[in-house]
Every structure is written in structure tokens, then in C-alpha cells.
Design a protein that fits this description.
By secondary structure, this protein is α+β, with helices and mostly antiparallel strands. It contains 4 helices and 5 strands. It has helices at residues 26-39, 137-149, 160-169, 171-188; strands spanning 44-46, 56-62, 77-100, 108-123, 129-135. The protein has a 5-stranded antiparallel sheet, sandwiched between helices.
């Protein structure tokens, strides 16, 4: 099942998500989230982005950089991560990098600061405890998705003046996304 992706302005994106307790449904939900993410040509997707306020996200590591062609991303997937109830145990170093978001389509910042290396404790799709050490790009992806679980969007990680510049430069697009978010919520509620 492909879910509609919630857009900037949807209140679910600003709420702290609740812990996953029912693991009986996580495997199917994660499969649907993965399909939704691949359809949108993303690298990660958190449950709040599909309207579920739960501490769950999926992410993929690609074998090659996805190109702009419409070839199926599934062919490039090297590893799939299903992450429930993540806890950041350790962070090391800091680097700036480019980030975008499926809930803010078309908007990017090249200067988002993140830890270069992280250690994360989490539960897999069956509820088994796991610990993972990541660095570089996948560490950035995990931190981005974990932020979604706390109601934080990537541009909020920018230092004050850069955040203000991002908001000012994208004011019209953000307003358009908020309007689309309201329309989607209205449609989903059947009104």
C-alpha cells in the first residue's frame, strides 16, 4: 500500500511520536512505508510522515547513487533498515551536509549540521533489541528520521541566521505546502 505523504503544515509532523508497542503489525507497516518511500524516490521515511505518530522509520542504503531516471529504486537497494523506538547512544564529530525531506518536496539546505558518527539502540521489526554504529551519509539519514519522531524538521537544525534565511527564501513554497497539507487532511478525513 502506498500512503499519501504528509506535508509541511500537517500537525502530525510536529508531535513527539509514541513508542511502538504492538510489533505484530510492524512488518507489514514497514513494507508499506518502504513502498511509499521508494515510490517517492526517498532514502528514509518516518511513521509521522504517513500520519502515524509512532516511533518507527524505514531507511535504505543504495548500492549506487539514485539518478533522475525513472528506473526502479528497488533495484539499487543494498540494505533496508526498519527502526522502532530508536535511542541515540553516542554521537561524534560534526559535519554540514545537504538535506531535503519528502514532507518538504523540492526544498533543500546544504548546511545542515549533524554528528558524523553515531551509535543507535533500537528494536527491529520483530521487537528484538539491536545496536548499530553508523557514519557519514547513513548517520545523517538516521538523525534526520529520528528528528521526525520528535517533531523536528531538518531546517530547524540550521543555526539561527541560516534558519531565518532558509525560511525567508522559501516563504512562498512553505505557504503552498501548508495549503496542500490542509487540503490533504480534509480529503483524508472525508470532509
Amino acid at each position: 500500500m502506498i500512503y499519501p505523504i504528509r506535508l509541511y503544515g500537517d500537525p502530525v509532523l510536529r508531535k513527539r511520536a509514541q513508542p511502538v508497542r504492538d510489533f505484530a503489525r510492524v512488518k507489514k507497516l514497514a513494507e508499506d512505508m518502504l513502498e511509499t518511500m521508494l515510490e517517492a524516490r526517498g532514502v528514509g521515511l518516518a511513521a509521522p510522515q504517513i500520519g502515524l505518530s509512532e516511533r518507527l522509520f524505514v531507511a535504505v542504503e543504495y548500492a549506487d547513487e539514485p539518478d533522475e531516471e525513472e528506473r526502479p529504486l528497488r533495484d539499487l537497494v543494498r540494505r533496508v533498515y526498519v527502526v522502532a523506538n530508536p535511542v541515540l547512544l553516542h554521537r561524534e564529530g560534526e559535519v554540514e551536509g545537504t538535506e531535503g525531506c519528502l514532507s518538504l518536496p523540492g526544498l533543500y539546505s546544504e548546511e545542515v549540521p549533524r554528528a558524523e558518527r553515531i551509535r543507535v539502540a533500537y528494536q527491529d521489526e520483530e521487537g528484538n533489541p539491536r545496536v548499530l554504529e553508523l557514519e557519514g551519509y547513513m548517520a545523517r539519514v538516521f538523525q534526520h528520521e529520528m528528528d521526525h519522531l520528535d517533531g523536528v524538521l531538518f531546517f530547524e537544525r540550521l543555526p539561527g541566521p541560516k534558519r531565518e534565511a532558509f525560511l525567508e527564501a522559501n516563504r512562498a513554497e512553505l505557504a503552498r505546502l501548508q495549503k496542500e497539507a490542509r487540503a490533504l487532511l480534509k480529503e483524508l478525513s472525508g470532509r
